[in-house]
Amino acid sequence: MARFLKTKKENIGLPPDAIQLRGEKKSDYTRLRLFDFDANHIEEREVTNINEVTPLEQKKTTSWFNIDGLHDDNIMQEIARSFNLSSYIISDILDTHARPKIYEYDNCIYISLKMLQYNETDNYVSSENLVLVLKENLILSFQERPGDVFEPIRERLRKNKKRIRGSGPDFLAFSIMDVVIDNYIYIISRVGERIEDLDDELINNPSTSILEEINNLKGEINFLRKTIKPCRELMLSLVKMDSELLEENTFIHLRELQNNIKQADESTDSYREMLSDQLSVFHSVVSNRLNDILKFLTIFSVIFIPLTFIAGVYGTNFDYLPELGYKYSYFIMWGVMIVIAGTMIIYFKKKKWF
Q: Is 4 a domain residue?
């Protein structure tokens, strides 16, 4: 399946506010989890009814409502009604192949970005869409499938870390995006290790398997660039946003995220250039080896051309040739051939042809 642009034929012509999953179903069930906390208390539980969460929006505590699995249209419609979200927001959430973006609505901030996963066994990078909806005392996060990528944040909440427990949903949104971007950098470093390891192999063993590895890595780097570059634009827009939902202190951390995503973006560009250079080196090494082989074969052929000529003349089948009756003519022929071959080899070496 295509990795860079995905769509289904049945999605063509759908209304822009249609509440229908426009991606792959990646979970067999929808899991609803809630964290409600402030500086003094925390409540963590799984939710079976959306109505359990709705009253929390009016409280002074901060609530994190996480939805794993987006295939249940009824639950998504209920979320839209309960939290007063536009159908366009829910439609965007269900379009899991959409480009990362940020948009400010009247009652919330919509943030969409990609989470990356690195398969250590297959050395393959895959992506999952993540949407954050930031409201006054509440943040909703939508994931395509359950995962533990945000478990470090949950542990910080459970252990009563003062910064995250005493801050609002904007700081929690920063923490979630920070995990996503840190994961970008980790995956880039893993792919980068494979790219850098190719340098020695290119010189010592420029085989077709190396060429296949370079082409595979080019695909992974291009996929990373497709994910990271829009996220860099998103962070730039977020830092410039003037919204009551974002506290002034949070902008310091958002600028840190902006620097991190810039580093990730520049790293993918650097590794992309390295792969292009490695591809050039591969072709140069293979071409040089081929030239060496052709040079050897050419010199070998040139040396034997006069020898073949002498042997051909000497072996001419005529009855009357002056040298046929001479006792040492065979040895003289070998001597002349050796002198000619030796002279040509010395001449070629002086010319540094081999």
A: no
